[in-house]
Write a structure and sequence with these properties.
Length: 245
């Protein structure tokens, strides 16, 4: 039987203000995943995490919103099953570069077996040159079979969510550690143009306020004309300049 969780979005106005301030600090840190671009998105993901019974930082690293639908990492799906369904049993019968097979049992129920093969992935058009399916086939197969198993046997634990790659193949993230390393490497490689400075260096404003043109938080101050903002393309911005007022 599933555990009960507090599904109220926010209990008090003070709690709402605190959550917003926390998310502002998280955004300003620059350490959140790149798909979280502003405070509103951070708050939304934190609230979804609250519904699932997980803390904000875990929600930021494991939940992605694609076309308005929340998607969970396969690792989070498995964790929620163990957390919310006491006595649940999930065993990997086989995991290779060719097939992932898992057996799942609810307390008092019969075991059910699920599998996903590399041939299934090819038929679905998922296996493409330089895709994670080529680089990390075993991890991708495990993620697919975990998602299928979770929705079929433990829908109450994951609330019907899919993995990011199921909603958008381009969002495939086979190895959490690899993604984090890639993000860190990308940040280190960013070169800031000499004619601009980060907003926080120039004025007392939140880090990277939202661009009024593309709505991405990538604004910097133009050194050549300090009355203008510059929307930094390497941070996902549009490259346009707009007045600071």
């Amino acid at each position: 039987m599933s555990q009960n969780h507090n599904t109220a979005i926010i209990n008090t106005p003070d709690e709402w203000v605190l959550l917003q301030r926390q998310c502002e600090a998280f955004i300003r840190s620059g350490f959140l995943p790149p798909h979280i671009k502003n405070v509103q998105q951070a708050v939304t993901i934190a609230v979804k995490g609250r519904e699932l019974g997980i803390p904000p930082m875990q929600a930021f690293s494991s939940i992605t919103v694609i076309s308005g639908k929340p998607a969970l990492s396969a690792e989070l799906m498995l964790a929620l099953i163990y957390q919310r369904v006491p006595g649940a049993q999930v065993h990997f019968v086989e995991t290779t570069d060719i097939v992932a097979k898992v057996e799942a049992t609810r307390p008092g129920g019969k075991g059910q077996t699920f599998s996903f093969t590399i041939e299934d992935a090819k038929q679905a058009g998922l296996v493409k040159p330089n895709s994670p399916w080529i680089k990390y086939p075993a991890a991708m197969l495990r993620a697919r079979v975990i998602s299928a198993m979770a929705r079929a046997v433990f829908p109450d634990a994951i609330m019907g969510c899919y993995t990011p790659e199921e909603l958008d193949p381009a969002a495939a993230q086979p190895e959490t550690l690899q993604v984090v390393l890639d993000q860190t490497k990308e940040v280190k490689q960013i070169e800031i143009p000499k004619d601009v400075l980060p907003v926080e260096k120039e004025m007392d404003q939140p880090l990277h306020p939202e661009c009024p043109i593309c709505h991405v938080q990538a604004l910097m101050v133009d050194r050549q004309n300090e009355d203008l903002f510059y929307c930094f393309p390497k941070w996902g911005g549009c490259g346009q300049k707009t007045p600071r007022d």
